[in-house]
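User: I'm putting together a teaching handout on how multi-component assemblies are represented. Below are the sequence lines for each component of a complex, exactly as they appear in our records. Could you produce the 3D structure of the whole assembly as structure tokens, so the students can see both representations side by side? Please keep the chain order the same as the input.
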Amino acid sequence: MSNLFSPAVIAGHLFTLWSALICVLWGIGKASRPAPSPDEPEETVRSWTQDERQIEENL
Amino acid sequence: MEKITLAAFVLAYLGIVLFLGWRGFRNTRTVTDYLLAGRRSHPWVMALSYGATFISTSAIVGFGGVAAVYGMGLMWLTFTNIFIGIFIAFAFFGPPTRRLGLRLDAHTFPELLGRRYRSRAIQSSSAALIFLFMPLYASAVLMSAAKFLSEHLGLSYQEALYLFAGIVAVSVVLGGLKGVLYTDAFQAAVMTAGMVALLLLSYYRLGGLTAAYKKLAALHSAVPPRLTALGHQGWTAFPAFGSVLWWTLVGSIMTGVSIGVLAQPQLVVRFMTVRRESELHRAIPIGALFILLTVGIAYLVGPLTNVFFHETSDTLALQRAGGDVERIIPMYVTAALPPFFSILFLVTLLSAAMSTLSSQFHVIGTALGRDLLEEGLGLPARFRTLHLSRIGMVAAILFALLLGVEMERILGKTGTEIVARSTAIFFGLCASIFLPVYAAALWCRSATRAGALTAMLVGALSYVLWMLFMQEKTAALFGLSQRWFGTRSLGIVIRPEGESLLQTGPVLWTHVDASLVALPIAILAILLVSAFTPKFSPDHLARCFSPPNQNSAA
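Assistant: Of course. Below is the structure of the complete assembly, with chains in the same order as your input.
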């Protein structure tokens, strides 16, 4: 069936499938191992921001 | 009987949407809940919401119709949608966006930029741009959905418009981003089911997969001479390299949509809704599969509509639709596929429209309530309530509704065209104005406030100038080039022997999208100006870029 399509159209389909595959593998790969970068403790950041705002208001 | 079934389906669908909006309302307690779904959304729900927001009715009906004209070369747009719109966006832009948003306690896209550059002007001007231009985009989606509803349910255009806007309004205003995410995820599931059914039924109707494409390839000889002269080489081939159609497809359609998506405020804000960075990566496969199964299928089915219309009425899809690209897919669904599918397809289109619209209303509302009123006017803490964001959202909905009513009443079909063109302009403006500043905010410590402001200004200016005087489609629409220079675009040279297009090598300048020109200029502007203007203090940069424990230790 490939002779029905021009090379550019075949390449478009292949790139589409390849990008979808990359996305699936990326997601599976990242989900199966713990993230190397530490996720930030949200409350710390939030309280830090609030503290800073309080200081600004006091000033 | 068919109408009763249809009405029952539509009402059941709208009932589910209202229920999910109410669930969002029940679970919304704080401003962060309302603006960022409490930063606790499930990665799959977020990915489906991102995809459903990204893919509007125009991606399915409009671009599906474009594929019916240009052929299967449009599949490259699916590739860029997945690779840039999902992979690059989630894997590279998402994590630093979430991190920066959390460190600066930003709740909206303008607030993220404003706090990163410590500039109220940047926050307010970004919010003003969103508040002024996005309602045009929203009203385009609203108008197309109202037209579908009025045609299929026997309502007047106005009744359909108010009904549709009312239901979206209830779920967004009450449920906030939680309501939007819940309803989007449901709508994404409906869209996926509808599009998969469309593909399978189309192959069945056209005699199977191989037979369908053999017939499509054989239609090569039926390409009208006018299209052949512009570079059309059949529906199973890409337009000839460097031809007018090639430039329209690559330089305009694919570039504008692909790059613009990275700086769409309603999409960027979703990166800030997940609990952990790793969840952004977990969301990638779901987002990619959703795009593949929605737009990928629309671009596969679009060209095949020519086979059906050629077999049944000896015409091509565009001729059959009277030259209206947006009518091709709905006409094909009605004529070629079983009646029950028309109902599913209508609900699919309603889902596409509603999911995009709810996110747009949310972003426009927060731009007004949070960025312009709360932060822009510097309201004291006692006025900073959830109600202000809700008031902003109601104003946004009324603005889009007013545009939807007035554009149709005053301008009719021309109004629809102007609104559709404004949508493309909004995408281009987002890419030209926001993308360099947003990318620099995430990765460039040396980017300065002056650099960011200059880039936004230069990006906007170069985009507008190119759009008004060089890009043929927009220049002809506004007419300034014709009035001042006697040619509908400065890229068209008028000689006594006829018109010719300004060309440098293979580049046909009049078909180059304005964002392709404005974006590099804006990038250059932020780099150059930032090199010569005062940098941010180490404290601010540490807060933006270093983990909090390191910063406090320092």
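A couple of points students might notice: The CA atoms of residues 1 and 54 of chain A lie 69 Å apart. The mean pLDDT of chain A is 74.
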